[in-house]
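Morning, I've got a small favour to ask if you have a moment. It would help a lot if you went through both lines with me. I owe you a coffee for this, so here goes:
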Amino acid sequence: MSFGRPPTFSDFKPTPPDRGSFPLDHDGECKAQVMAYMNCLTRHTGDATPCRVEGKSYLECRMSKGLMERDDWSNLGMQNVPTSQNENDPATKP
C-alpha cells in the first residue's frame, strides 16, 4: 500500500467563514486583556459567566486595534455587560 501525495483540487477556491475567524494578534496588542480573561477563567474553573467584563474588554481591544471587524455589542451577546468592573460598584460612584 502506498501513501503518496494527497490529491490536488484545481477547482478548489477557499473562502473565509462568515463569522468566527479573525487575524491572530501576532504583535501582542491585546495580550493584557486576553491574560486577564484567561486568569479569570482559571479562577472560576472555566465558567465564563463571571468573566464577561474581561471578555468584553478583550473584544473591545481587538475591535479598536483592527484585529476584528467592529460589531454591535448586542450581536456579540455583550449588550448588558458593563465596560469595567467598577461601573456597577456603588463604592466607586460619587
Remarks:
- Residues 31-43 form the longest helix (13 residues).
- The chain has a mean pLDDT of 80.
- Residues 31-81 form one domain.
